[in-house]
Amino acid sequence: MTKIPMTVQGEKLLRAELTELKTVARPQIIANISEARAHGDLKENAEYHEAKNQQSFIEGRIQEIEHKLSHAQIVDINSIEKDGKVVFGVTVTLLDEHEKQVTYQIVGEDEADIKQNKISYASPVARALIGKFEGDEVSVQTPKGLIAYEIMKVGY
Q1: Does the reported pTM lie above 0.85?
Q2: First vs last Cα of the chain: how many Å apart?
Q3: What's the pLDDT tens digit per position in 62-97?
Q4: In which residue ranges of the chain is pLDDT below 70?
């Protein structure tokens, strides 16, 4: 059984989405289906078919979230030894070969959002960084070519 790593914040967000889907979206879609059924012939009822498609999507998402939460390995960054090592959950400040500084937090796949500087632990950059220490240099193969980084800071 494969564990799915996620941060404490990532777990909270998934649980909130699950609660929203079960308590708000699911009852709303059931009401929409009932209303569409009242309009008559189901074969040519576009509202009914759309509501059934939405129901299918919601139920699928509920199952997906429940599966992820049941297989989750929650990593609390506050309980990790702070020795300067890059591990899941840390925030890493890097300096690239052009003296440009970037900061990323290494998170689970569902939490990754490059706009918020959160990268998946499975991304090429994160895979190259995990296990390294502050001051180390790493090279990462990206679509733009090989990029060298120096690990300036590891934040816990």
Answers
A1: no
A2: 28
A3: 999 999 999 999 999 888 888 889 999 999 999 988
A4: 1
Residue position matching structure tokens 């702070």 = 82
Nearest by Cα to 156 from 87, 72, 101, 73: 87
Architecture of the domain defined by 4-75: Orthogonal Bundle (1.10)
Which secondary-structure segment (H or E) carries 6?
strand 4-7
Name which of 95, 104, 144, 99 is nearest 127 in CA terms. 104
Dihedral over alpha carbons 111, 114, 116, 121 (to 10 degrees): 40
CA distance 10 to 101: 26
User: Which residue(s) pair with 96 in the sheet?
Assistant: 149
Fold of 77-155: Chitinase A; domain 3 (3.10.50)
Rounded to an integer, what distance in angstroms lies between the CA atom of residue 138 and that of residue 94?
A: 10
Structure tokens at 47: 């509202």
